[in-house]
Input
Amino acid sequence: MKKIILTGGGTAGHVTPNLALIPSLKERNYDIHYIGSYQGIERKLIEGAGIAYIGISSGKFRRYFDLKNFSDPFRVIKGYREALKFIKKYKPDVVFSKGGFVAVPVVLAAKHCKVPVIIHESDMTPGLANKLCIPSAVHVCCNFPETLSYLPKNKAVLTGSPIRKELLEGDRLKGINYTHLSENRPIILIIGGSLGSVTVNNAVREILPKLLKNFQIIHICGKGNLDESLIDTEGYVQYEYVDAPLKHLFAAADLMISRAGANAICEILALRKPNILIPLSAAASRGDQILNAKSFARQGFSCLLEEENLTGDSLLQAVTETYKNRKNYISNMEQSEQHNAIDAIVEMIESISQK
Ligand SMILES: CC(=O)N[C@H]1[C@@H](OP(=O)(O)OP(=O)(O)OC[C@H]2O[C@@H](n3ccc(=O)[nH]c3=O)[C@H](O)[C@@H]2O)O[C@H](CO)[C@@H](O)[C@@H]1O
Output
């Protein structure tokens, strides 16, 4: 039996592409183990999928001052030793990394043991964790054509991002039943990234009574962000994070408001959902979500609303206009050529593990 280690974590965007690969890897008879952090979101998602999970110590690499900058290097070294110990024992044929800080010691340990590594970058430009991993990788997969120019030519492959197949199999009625909303009024699904977004949540809640005049709202607001005062509001439901039933909520949505995380937007495109993207600002990140959202807006897939222009009024206007023009957006999305990343990546894994 061929053996693979998957790794990646920190936010769900570094885990769900791995989840998307698992059914095809199982079909091809791979024994799968996942290395992630002790407490990260990846643990719950991967154990929930019934995959063997190895927790390691993990620390973040920051470009700014933080007291944790003094303790985190020791955590990373410990994580490296733990990853090394497991890899030596398990002897995988290949390691696939979806990035995030926890993946760095795993990739370095694999390289030390001469296990071939494939990494995947979902964003337009490589993040710090992936930059550290690129020298140790045999192939670097990417999601956007623009990314190729940031990667070594002999390693870069444009595959697209793996999207969980089941997301395309949602059932609108099941989504309606799950949320107890009405079948007869349009539904807006709001996702502020896998961790939620207080900025997006506040803007939505500011105009909630106005939105509810014409729409019903499913609001995925992130851990710790539920608003108890809104629990009995008719036509409005809120969740911290939705796992398996997410496909039905997608199916029930007539319009989406979302952050512009690379995976979320690829899913929205695959599902042809008219959408408003509110990218994470350059002040809070390296600005990749802005590039993602601009690219989608340029191609006519999305209405872009930048955070500095986000007010209750601008959001309401964006909702009204995007809903009015929804057919145009859907038809533009239908023209897009999305890659089937699952097959391309699994073929690549196969060709490496057979060597
Ligand atoms: C703050 C931050 O660092 N954001 C980054 C993070 O975003 P984030 O983790 O939010 O990543 P994405 O938006 O790319 O993906 C989120 C994933 O979580 C899933 N999901 C989300 C909510 C939910 O309730 N249930 C659920 O299953 C989505 O379907 C999607 O598959 O990784 C992305 C991909 O590298 C980057 O583009 C983002 O800039």
User: Anything to note?
Assistant: The chain is about 40% helix and 15% strand. The first helix runs from residue 16 to 27.
